[in-house]
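Input chain follows. Return structure tokens only.
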Amino acid sequence: MNPAMQTALTTKIIDAAAVTEAADALRAGRLVAFPTETVYGLGADAANPRAVAGIYEAKGRPSFNPLIAHVADLEAARRIAQFDSRALALAKAFWPGPLTLVLPKLDNWADNCPVSDLATAGLDTVAIRVPNHPVAHALLAAFGGAVVAPSANISGHVSPTTAAHVRADLDGRIDMIVDGGPVEVGVESTIVGCFEQPMLLRPGGLPREAIEQVLGMALARPPEEPETDNHQPLAPGMLASHYAPRTRVRLLAEDVKPGEALLAFGRAELPGIDNAKAVMNLSESSDLGEAAANLFGYLRALDAKGAAGIAVMPVPSHGLGEAINDRLRRAAV
């Protein structure tokens, strides 16, 4: 068992001392949860295979699912991966921010190995991003290297948007939470594969349209997803079942069935709503940004209501709606 899983979890309200303590813990091979603008991440020293293995163990995450390496700036990213002109244009346009780029490893990877092969799941590519959050930036700058950080939750469960969510899933499994309050974006980063034709591997906190505007071309679609999770994905967050509450999720609901809770969007006037176990509205004003920020927190809250199921009203698929619907589909598998 990873030593981190044998220690008491401590929560640190953010200050300079907490950042220093968290950076020291990462250097010692320990697991530290910290906020980004998207969701809370579970961080480990990317170059330390034993620490990376601790992430898989703490989350119960399949080892064939790669991790995202978080770095402080573009300069640090270029010490890890190869950037062509398109990748460089995206990095300059959207970093720091909710965009992950899947890039070819540097030619001298075997000699340097800034991210362990376990974290890249043995692929010839590495997923990198520069988060836009003051706590994450301060921690990465203090640490001085790459930190792999999937969402700080049990694998496949709803992603955490507060420190309390992290504690609920991982208490007793990790060493420290740096509490930076609720996150801003609320869904994970958009992932773009920088292949011969750039490919949208996972919709997320940066809308497809903004990326395509910078590239001057449409993003390719990923290969058809397998029916099971016994398959190595091209990037994090691509498993068929992911972001899932324990309660069954029913999409495109036009009514609320007996015993169900309702995850609403916009005007909620469905048959059966008066007898719903609970009702939470992602955005009464139909604001997709507000809905994205509320998504995971509301799914967690409804999951705790003891309902027979969670009925989910339709959400438009444009802009951030593409990412919201992607997460809801995976939650419903």
